[in-house]
């Protein structure tokens, strides 16, 4: 989310992890605008949440588009509250042409307000041919395809210190129960099993989502994400109980529940990969690698590695993702040129520009696995792209922000309360349902 944007913690170092080559499988790259400077003299404005290295790397993509088409580009950083910023710009008659939307719920909101233009036939053909159908699903509203997913995150990765697991004599686990058992063995060797970033409520939603997707299955996950299933359902109570087993075990969480509630996401990575390790493992998305490398000098694949979030109670291994979708606003001054940018972003050529700089993962199947720079990156990409339609978008990002994306409120706060006291999953489920019902109604 990232969000709540943890992707902003990625930087150029992650080229080691997620570097893509410029070569695509299955034919040559598609030239935006025909490569004939057809957009010379036009300016495309693009709004998105990115700052820092992410903004700089996306600018490289925009520069490549400019070199091909002759169009100038202007990037506007919105901060996390994309909806408010874009809405105010539309009202002020200064709408951007393209917005990089980080949440499905926001994309749906924009579409239902009538702000968006459906993807061109060219972009739609590319999505159909080169992406798993699930990405079209999350980019569509009421049967129309509005969003092109350019950048993705893999949120079903558990990162660990190979030294810590080796010292404890354990191997990466294959099931959730094995993971907890391995955690106790790690704890017996002198380190806590997990570092948990409870200060950031979004990390707790990610824990829940992986457990729920595996334990309850994709159909119930989809129903809960759309609030067609109530949070008081027995499947939710069961998943909370599974999560609570971890939360209440003082051997498993570094510093116990109280310290977890005072640990933010970067701090949780530091407890595993920093100079004074306190835990052997930390759960979060592929962006953990960027923090481990950039801030703590860890070499990804050598002294920082991951295993897939393991299946729970006989279910399938979950693959939860997040991502940024490019959309074209109707009120943009140059929406036609904006659509040409989307057609370019759909190509492996465009993905390769950012991928070379690092900190990037593409959901485009035409970006060959052999283009990734190392075994860890190939495994990450294979897991995400290979999951096909079993990928599920981060549930809290599909919810109204009042429930799934607001600090100190809704799901974030209620799961923090549950971390503090996981003794009554049924009561927590009831509180979640009350908050969800209010938010979805609004």
UniProtKB/TrEMBL annotation:
Keywords: Signal, Transport. InterPro entries: Bact_solute-bd_prot1 (IPR050490), SBP (IPR006059). Transmembrane segments: none annotated. It holds the Pfam family SBP_bac_1. Residues 1-24 form the signal peptide. Belongs to the bacterial solute-binding protein 1 family. PANTHER family: ARABINOSE-BINDING PROTEIN-RELATED, OSMOPROTECTIVE COMPOUNDS-BINDING PROTEIN GGTB. This is ABC transporter substrate-binding protein.
